[in-house]
Amino acid sequence: MNNELNKLAINGGSPARSNPNPPMFPGGMNIDEREEQAVLEVLRSKRLFRYYGPGDTDSKVEAFEQAFAKKTGVKYTLGLNSCTNALGVALMAAGINPGDEVIVPAYTFIATPAAIVMANAIPVIVEVDDSLTIDPEEVERNITGKTKAIMPVHMRGAACNMDAIMAIAKKHGLKVIEDAAQANGGKYNGRPVGSIGDAGCFSFQFHKIITAGEGGAITTNDEELIERAKSLHDTGANWREDFTTDNKDDFPVFPGFNCRMSELTGAMLLVQLEKRDGFIKTMQSYAARINEAISAHPNGAKVRHKNSSDGDVGVCSMFFVENRAKAGEIAAALEAEGIPAETFGGGGIPDWHIYSYWHHILSKHGNNDAGYPFTLTDRVYSEDMCPKTTDMLRRAVHIDVNPLLAQSDIDETVQGLHKVLDLLL
Hints:
It is globular and about 75 Å long. The longest helix is centred in the middle third of the chain and has 33 residues, at 263-295. With 425 residues, it is α/β, with parallel strands linked by helices. Helices cover 36% and strands 12% of the residues. It has a 7-stranded mixed beta sheet, with helices on both faces.
């Protein structure tokens, strides 16, 4: 390359990327006439409620649940209004009781530990490993007599080490609730995430791979768990026709919540689900090229570890450098090249994906003045309790991988990566 091509854009050189980046909303930016038609069909039928309507039209939510269960390789799916509620309902449906401990990684969105508190249980925050997902060794190290569940999070599209987690759960008699909010369509050694533990939970919020703006789902092969979840998400109404247990009359009735999925959401998600695998195929192809470019600089950059060769949907590329200052320098240079890059916990808006920003968890604030359920534990939290996680995130650079990009955009991204890493590492 000549001197001009070698000059970083942040120092006055020409940016590597020639086109602006589209918004990173894979499903949302791909909404077209098919979603419009699906929503219009619901509006014209006037059946907006999942369980009944004025005519004899079939439920879109039920159709989505059946399609999603098939895609995920499970017997049952339950649609809800958010993944946060899916996580909380799944925990309670799995038999988690007030004061029980649930192990959760230090790197996940705050909704994960919040759902544990919603279930009146106690989050036990543990380190992640170099996959930036929960470290199985740390899981086992933190098991106590109160531990009743593990909540692995398939973070930023990448699968956890589920073989190790399931072995630990079996050894100690623990439930496993997979948080697959950011990995819809991902796999672990050929098995869909959300089909490996006792239950899986998914998000359809606007940032996610497929979306209806909001929405969530629980997946499971456990009939009792899904029946309890149906009752919990529907104000305790276990008399609905969709209950599948033969002994419905003997099934315990208990108060529940109202976090049902609407027919409009179900209609949109049916269409979005048909598009999902195409998004993932494109992102995986793009991410592979970006990771290959980063890996060409092994002395200064290390791509995060993958627990499974097929276990990453490709929504991003993440790599580590020597220290926080270098990560910030590289991210700023990539941004100037037109490559969407960022670091973690660098100030500004609190990053609620990192445990040290979960101030209401760390200070043991319940959703009430009494501080319940933290009144049931003597566990102590602190902002420096997971130093390995903090160190890795401070040294990490994150690059979005958008399925709306063209191959030419990825060609330029790869060129920009080489330029930045050649000059700054």
